[in-house]
Amino acid sequence: MPRVRIALATLTTAIVGMAALTACSSDSDSTDSTQQADKPAAAPKPITKELSQAHLTQALLDDGETLPHFSLHGHKSVTDGEFCNAAEDADSAPKGWVRGSDSSYEYDGSTLHMADIKICLFDSADAAHQQYTLWKGTETSKQQSPKKPLGDENTLVVEDDGSVYGYVRSGKVNIRVHVDEVAASDPSGTQAMLAATLKRLQQLQDGKAATVTALDEQAAARQ
User: Fold this and answer.
1) What confidence tier does 204 reach under pLDDT thresholds 50, 70, 90?
2) What is the model's pLDDT at position 173?
3) CA distances for 223 relative to 36, 215, 220, angstroms
4) For the chain, how far is it from start to end, CA to CA, in angstroms?
């Protein structure tokens, strides 16, 4: 009988030990899972590389990649330096300017109502910031923040005629989007074009193809 009791005691101790180990493992797994779930997603990297002219052109939205009713007007263009200069009546490239690209879009085939995108690359974040500040202006009553922040600095400017300008700076790059009043009943379309263009630049900087579209951004905003 003593031997039986010893064997039973040993078995009971082993079972209790296994249960404790299982509980610890479960708690550990639960903690790890919680920590992973609570960990915030990494913020998109700012544009810090000196992207090529081809990269800037690829980042511009093409037919089927922009807002509904819009189609590319002509061809994507190389932007002259003066058009990245936000100073009033500028006739020369701003300090630190490297290169730029732009594109315009017809609304239902009409050039009376259009949208456009401009990308300007600078040699430093400071140079880009200076032009971004000039671009967005000082009329704070017209400015509003996008529902989802973009880049390092961003703002939407709603003009008295109902047209919307969107501006974002990410590292060394400025992006400006303008949507005419006919298609700008609210700023969400301008924001979608801004976000898509920036994310395409980020994809290209990471060595990937530019695949994000304004339609993707609109769909994400509805969720």
Assistant:
1) very high
2) 98
3) 23, 13, 5
4) 70
Find all residues with CB under 8 Å of 51, minimum gap 6, and list them: 121, 173, 201, 204, 205
136 contacts 179 by C-beta, under 8 angstroms: no
Asked if residue 187 lies in contact with residue 166, where contact means CB atoms within 8 angstroms, the answer is: yes
**CA dist., res. 205 & res. 209, Å (int):** 9
Q: What is the pLDDT of residue 43?
A: 52
Query: For residue 119, which phi and psi values (nearest 5 degrees)?
Result: -120, 130
- Residue type at position 41: A
25-34, 78-87, 130-139, range with the lowest pLDDT: 25-34
Cα 190–chain centre separation: 12
The tokens describing 83, both together, are: 């058009």
Q: What percent of the chain has pLDDT over 70?
A: 78
Residues 169-200 as b or e (16 or more Cβ within 10 Å = b): bbbbbbbbbbbbebbbeebbbbbbbbbbbbbb
Instruction: Tell me which DSSP letter residue 82 carries.
Output: G
Amino acid at 208: K
φ, ψ of residue 156 in degrees (nearest 5): -115, 135
Amino acid letter, 112: L
Residue 63, class by beta-carbon neighbours within 10 Å (0-12 exposed, 13-18 middle, 19+ buried)? exposed
